Amino acid sequence: SPKPFRTHITNEADLLPSYSYIIVGGGTSGLVLASRLSEDPSNTVLIIEAGPLVEPVPEQLLYPGWSQLSLFNSSIMGPYRYPSFPSAPEEALNNRTSEVAAARVVGGGSAINGMVFLRGSKRDYDSWGVWDYNKLLPYFKKSETFIPPSPEQERQGITWDKTNHGFNGPIQVSFPNGTYPAAGRYLEAIESLGPKRSVDTSTNAVGTFWMPSSLDAGRQERSYAYNGYLQPLMDKRKNLHLLSQRTVTKILSGKKTGSTVPITGVEFAASEAGKKYTVKAKKGVILAAGALHTPQILQLSGIGNPKLLEPLGIKTVIDLPGVGENLQDHPYVSVPHSTTYPTNETSGGSLFDPTFFATAYDLYLRTRTGPFTAGLGNTGAFLSLESITNTTTLNSLLSSIPAGSFLDPSTPVSVKKGWEDQLKKTIENYKRADSAAYEFLPGLVALQHPLSRGTVRLRSPPNPFSRPVVNYRTLSHPLDALILAQGVLFQQKIFKSPVLAYANPVDNSAFAAIDEADIGAILEVMKAQVTASLAHPCGTAGMRAREEGGVVDEKLEVYGAKGLWVVDASVVPLVPGQHIQPTVYAVAERAADVIRGRKV
Ligand SMILES: Cc1cc2nc3c(=O)[nH]c(=O)nc-3n(C[C@H](O)[C@H](O)[C@H](O)COP(=O)(O)OP(=O)(O)OC[C@H]3O[C@@H](n4cnc5c(N)ncnc54)[C@H](O)[C@@H]3O)c2cc1C
After folding, report:
1. pLDDT score of 348 more than 70
2. Mean confidence (pLDDT) of the chain
3. What is the Cα 465 distance to its own chain's centre?
């Protein structure tokens, strides 16, 4: 009798000789594309994913065990991530390195992330210059099923507005059952200094708010690209294959005609020493390997800057200097305060007590309530520069921007031109109330719109199985450090607010002893303490004009190629002032319609 159809194939012998589309990377964006492109039965679709297919287990689906169970517990989440590797030493951070985090599992970043689920402001997307907020809005809605707060949650002060939400998409978005009263007080303390509460982040992304999560409200479990987009199709949709634990080593191309190189398929292998296989794509190849690995694959395939490729012995197939440039993330600095009433008990320590932990875990498994349903505090603020500084400070910061780009000296001319445009937009946005300069959480302050730009480059000798060289170049532009310093001062003010006096906050940070006028001393501490990445890398195959360092056009097709698209965080040209997974979902949803040739 014929073998039953299986979506997940584990043996190359089960591959079709060719597919309409091959998707490289079965992560957040890759699974959106797989689901949408295979809706059309005339398409055959193959996903090739470097990591394993892990059927979700409670430890992975848990909302928040945040610090203990998911993000940072390598014994549980280790198998779902690339082994940690250090970034290149950073000059502006005393040559320190940061750990580079990237998922390697079916579901990608959405399987291991902190589940914060918020979009940036309209202004942030309108600053992209190609797609804008109105083009993305239908796709923000399409990707989510928003679950409004329960009456109990509304009593806690959680508000919402239905205008810009979706109610029928694959990713469940809701507020967790568990919250801590102190979390709300943090917001009130900020509001006592001027900033306002936002009713709903999808209508106003700048202000203080309760943060929704990618969370199934009923089960209080993680909602992510695998259980949202792919799992419901497994073994049902016969035109869709997933090949896991295979690394794509190269994109294959045919003979150039005119100025265009046709893309014909991919080469892949299970390990460095393993046999190399090829598979053909009839309509094309879709890169969804994330902002750190997509540029690596392009460069390994000869698509990039000849000045970087040729010394490594790689023949240039498409001269595209923007590949791997323009790297952006959200650097942050911890400004911890101890309180007699923890502002965030979950990550603050009580779950580190084994007895408390075991009781809380048991409660979660039985009733889906308790500390395991409360993560990160679920409150935060995304605030503009003008809302936390006075006019004199704002004007002095923005009128004395040091001349020069502070880009890596090897930055290609086109990329520099693109950066100059981004500089103008970023400075303009710093003067406005509708674009966030900062994220404030009880323990940290993160910079939302850095002017510094990093790079992702191949290691020498080039090897698809070694990690790329990631140089965040954090705070290389001096204005970034000055703006972040204002955030540190504001965080200290928050904890001095009478609203939090009942909790007796004590500033435990290295900033505590510094006089607020001594910006130089604050900058010195930041050099020693800033962390480069909130795991929001983007921009490394930016959607912008080719003469401005762009890698893909507005159809997300790689310049100079026919049948090669990028659909992941790499294409985001200018990082929004927010955690970026909802943006990645929306971009991927729109990409699917664009690639299918639908009206968008
Ligand atoms: C630890 C962490 C915490 C985060 N927290 C949040 C948060 O709370 N809220 C939020 O909004 N965002 C968060 N993010 C960011 C968000 O999850 C990512 O921006 C998003 O998942 C990126 O999606 P992507 O499709 O671009 O890449 P990914 O989802 O990373 O997918 C890329 C996939 O490609 C695969 N791949 C790579 N190279 C190859 C190759 N050569 N061959 C085959 N497969 C390959 C990888 O294994 C991976 O599965 C976090 C990210 C991380 C890592």
Report:
1. no
2. 92
3. 22
Residue 350 in this model has a pLDDT that exceeds 50: yes
Nearest alpha carbon to residue 448 among 426, 469, 470, 431 = 426
Residues 6+ apart with CB under 8 A from 448: 330, 382, 436, 437, 438, 439, 575, 576, 577, 578
* Residue nearest atom 37 in ligand 1 by C-alpha distance: 289
Burial class (CB within 10 angstroms; exposed 0-12, middle 13-18, buried 19+) of 515: exposed
DSSP 475: T
- Chain-centroid distance, C-alpha 341: 31
Range list of H helices, 310-452 = 345-348, 354-367, 385-388, 391-399, 413-430
- Report CA dihedral (4, 6, 10, 16) to the nearest 10 degrees: 90
Predicted confidence band at 376 (pLDDT cuts at 50, 70, 90)? low
With a Cβ cut-off of 6 Å, ligand 1 is lined by 24-30, 48-51, 71, 101-105, 108-110, 112-116, 247-248, 288-291, 293, 297, 535-536, 568-569, 579-581, 584
Instruction: Tell me phi and psi for residue 99, to 5 degrees.
Output: -75, 135
95 is in an annotated binding site: no
User: C-alpha 421: how far from its chain's center?
Assistant: 23
> Is residue 539 a contact partner of residue 570, using CB atoms and an 8 Å limit?
yes
Q: Say whether 366 sits in a helix, a strand or coil.
A: helix
**In the beta sheet, which residues pair with residue 318?**
303
Model pTM above 0.80: yes
Q: Identify any residues that bridge with 172 across adjacent strands, giving them in sequence order.
A: 145
Identity of the amino acid at 197: R
Ligand 1 atom nearest the C-alpha of 249 is: 41
Does 204 appear as a known binding residue? no
Tell me the best of 581, 587, 590 to mutate to test the pocket of ligand 1, counting ligand atoms within 8 Å of each CB and taking the most: 581
116 is in an annotated binding site: yes
470: which strand partners? 456
Q: Which of 382, 344, 349 is nearest to 505 (CA)?
A: 344
**36-73 CB burial, b ≥16 within 10 A, e <16:** bbbeeeebbbbbbbbbebeeeeeebbbbbbbbbbbbee
Residue 318 is classified by DSSP as E
pLDDT tens digits along 296-314: 999 999 999 999 999 999 9
ipTM, 2 dp: 0.99
Annotated binding residue 11: no
Q: What is the pLDDT of residues 519-531, one digit of tens each?
A: 999 999 999 999 9
What number does the ligand 1 atom closest to the CA of 104 have?
47
Distance 285 CA to ligand 1 centre (A): 19
449 is catalytic: no
Residues 6+ apart with CB under 8 A from 73: 65, 67
> How far separated are the first and last CA of the chain, in Å rounded?
45
CA of 189: how far to CAs of 175, 180, 199, 201, in Å?
Answer: 21, 15, 17, 19
